[in-house]
């Protein structure tokens, strides 16, 4: 059975596209036939993060409007055999995505793929709603930062009330919390909300914690999903998260700070 | 920052992460999952606030309106902390 997973957050800039690209790539690495769908109509970016921007010919809206077949718009990843991207359109027409049209495309994708990752736009407007409407599971990307947590709570409310599963009174969308840009050291200092704090507030199961890592920017510069970076904590954390989507239960890493020596503390005071 | 200031700061200033958590708990108790309740709940809450404000001066965050489902019926819970 194909699973539709929405990657959402409410707030912008927290790492939805980075996460979509890495979860999609990770699932494909595990032998699952996966497609990542960009729902951010007008502000296409998934193609850049996945490094296929120069190969976009047709897009999601072309398929919905029946101008091309789904197969013509799907871009096959150059690195992985079973990974595909459906790019968003650059049109300024806000109504380019229709509920019925999105449903038709998702249904067709369900017949072809094991996992369909829906990369949601920020906000709670139409694009974000359509990205979550058909979801079986939701990955709520949250930064340990007050406005991100509040927006995550709002988007959870929408998932619980407005998704297709809610509307048809089916089993609820399976929710997962993914913390990104986490700094264990700052949490230890009392300067940043901890995973535990955020979990207490949002009350959803934890999928993973992605530590802040300088490699994330390097990866986006290069158009390579961060999960493919060797020797990078963020990549390891994404790999763990993917294994948990597939049912593994592993302890969460990178949540405790390295002990600072007395000497380092003195240095900290001096600066 | 001097060592003295650092030590003073440790004692007097609340860590900002804790402040953030408390602020979130309050705001989310008020507006959280706003879409999960019935559609009239936010409007009902606003009107209740106005009525209460007519008689007593209370802070917004001293009033909580919750709707819980218990044993097959819905319970509307209104909590107001009156100023001392």
Estimate percent helicity of chain B: 40-55%
| Average of pLDDT of chain B | 77
Distance between the termini of chain A: 56 Å
Overall, the morphology of chain A is: globular
Radius of gyration of chain B: 19 Å
Order of helices and strands of chain A: EHEHHHEEHEHEHHEHHEHHH
Task: Describe it.
The complex is a heterodimer of chains A (271) and B (84). Chain A has an 8-stranded mixed beta sheet, sandwiched between helices. Chain A has 13 helices and 8 strands. With 271 residues, chain A is of the alpha/beta class. Chain A is globular, with a radius of gyration of 19 Å. Chain B has 84 residues and is of the alpha+beta class. In chain B, 49% of the residues lie in helices and 19% in strands. Chain B is built from 3 helices and 2 strands; from the N terminus they run H-H-H-E-E. Chain B has a two-stranded antiparallel sheet with strand order 1-2. Chain B starts with a helix and ends with a strand. The model of chain B has no long low-confidence stretch (mean pLDDT 77). The interface between A and B is medium-sized, with 23 and 20 residues.
Core attributes:
heterodimer, A: 271 residues, alpha/beta, 8 strands, globular, B: 84 residues, alpha+beta, two-stranded antiparallel ribbon
Summarize the structure.
The complex is a heterodimer of chains A (271) and B (84). Chain A has 271 residues and is α/β, with parallel strands linked by helices.
Topology record:
The complex is a heterodimer of chains A (271) and B (84).
Chain A: E1 3-8, H1 16-29, E2 34-38, H2 46-49, H3 60-64, H4 70-73, E3 75-76, E4 83-86, H5 99-112, E5 115-119, H6 126-133, E6 137-142, H7 146-162, H8 164-167, E7 174-182, H9 184-188, H10 195-202, E8 206-211, H11 215-222, H12 233-245, H13 262-270
Chain B: H1 3-12, H2 16-31, H3 41-55, E1 63-70, E2 73-80
Antiparallel strand pairs in B: 1-2
């Amino acid at each position: 059975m194909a699973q539709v997973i929405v990657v959402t957050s409410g707030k912008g800039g927290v790492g939805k596209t980075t996460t979509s690209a890495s979860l999609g790539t990770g699932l494909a690495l595990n032998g699952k036939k996966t497609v990542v769908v960009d729902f951010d109509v007008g502000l296409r970016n998934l193609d850049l993060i996945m490094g296929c921007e120069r190969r976009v010919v047709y897009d999601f809206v072309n398929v919905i409007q029946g101008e091309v077949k789904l197969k013509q718009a799907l871009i096959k990843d150059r690195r992985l055999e079973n990974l595909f991207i459906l790019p968003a359109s650059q049109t300024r027409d806000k109504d380019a995505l229709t509920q019925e049209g999105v449903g038709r495309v998702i249904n067709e994708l369900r017949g072809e793929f094991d996992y369909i990752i829906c990369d949601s736009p920020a906000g709670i407007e139409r694009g974000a709603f359509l990205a979550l409407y058909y979801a079986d599971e939701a990955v709520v990307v949250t930064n340990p930062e007050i406005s991100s947590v509040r927006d995550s709570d709002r988007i959870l409310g929408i998932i619980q009330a407005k998704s297709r599963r809610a509307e048809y009174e089916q089993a609820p969308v399976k929710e997962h919390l993914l913390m990104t840009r986490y700094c264990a050291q700052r949490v230890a200092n009392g300067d940043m909300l901890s995973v535990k704090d955020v979990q207490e507030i949002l009350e959803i199961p934890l999928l993973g914690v992605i530590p802040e890592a300088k490699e994330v920017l390097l990866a986006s510069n290069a158009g390579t999903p961060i999960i493919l970076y060797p020797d990078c904590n963020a990549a390891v954390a994404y790999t763990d998260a993917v294994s948990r989507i597939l049912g593994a239960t592993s302890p969460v890493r990178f949540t405790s700070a390295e002990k600072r020596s007395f000497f380092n503390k003195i240095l900290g005071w001096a600066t | 920052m001097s060592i003295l200031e650092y030590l003073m700061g440790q004692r007097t200033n609340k860590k900002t992460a804790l402040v953030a958590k408390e602020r979130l708990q309050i705001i989310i108790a008020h507006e959280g999952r706003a879409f999960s309740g019935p559609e009239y709940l936010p409007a009902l809450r606003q009107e209740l606030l106005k009525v209460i404000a007519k008689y007593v001066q209370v802070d917004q965050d001293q009033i909580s309106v919750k709707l819980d489902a218990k044993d097959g019926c819905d319970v509307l819970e209104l909590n107001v902390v009156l100023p001392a």
